[in-house]
Design brief:
It is a single chain. The chain is mainly α. It has one domain. It has four helices and no strands.
């Protein structure tokens, strides 16, 4: 039951992230669409659209999508390890070791920019 819960939660989160990514792309395409009129009207409309993006906090929403995708991956891998333990302990250990390694690399890549300004691993 735990395994199914982890996998279905991972699936729902992944599909939700995909949906919101498509929606965000549409929102940004609308923002970038060609504006006709005088330069003053174009500037007014562009600022109006920008203010809308700010008011509705589109940038933080887009910024949260990778975090949710990472959460879905962790849930899926956790479910996979739990699933493999009774079937084949050696395989579960291998998958677990790979998962922990990937998670540690991700953690280091996330934390490293906090200590080194020139670090390119910004997430």
């Amino acid at each position: 039951l735990w395994i199914n819960g982890l996998w279905f939660t991972s699936l729902v989160i992944s599909l939700s992230v995909a949906l919101f990514a498509v929606l965000a792309k549409q929102w940004l395409r609308q923002y970038m669409s060609i504006i006709t009129g005088t330069p003053k009207e174009q500037a007014f409309i562009r600022q109006f659209r920008f203010d809308g993006l700010e008011k509705w906090r589109v940038q933080p929403l887009i910024g949260m999508l990778p975090t949710f995708l990472h959460l879905a991956l962790i849930l899926f891998l956790g479910g996979l390890i739990i699933f493999l333990v009774p079937l084949n302990t050696a395989m579960a250990c291998i998958v677990g070791a790979i998962s922990v390694t990937v998670d540690l690399i991700y953690l280091v890549a996330t934390v490293l920019p906090l200590f080194t300004v020139q670090c390119s691993y910004r997430t």
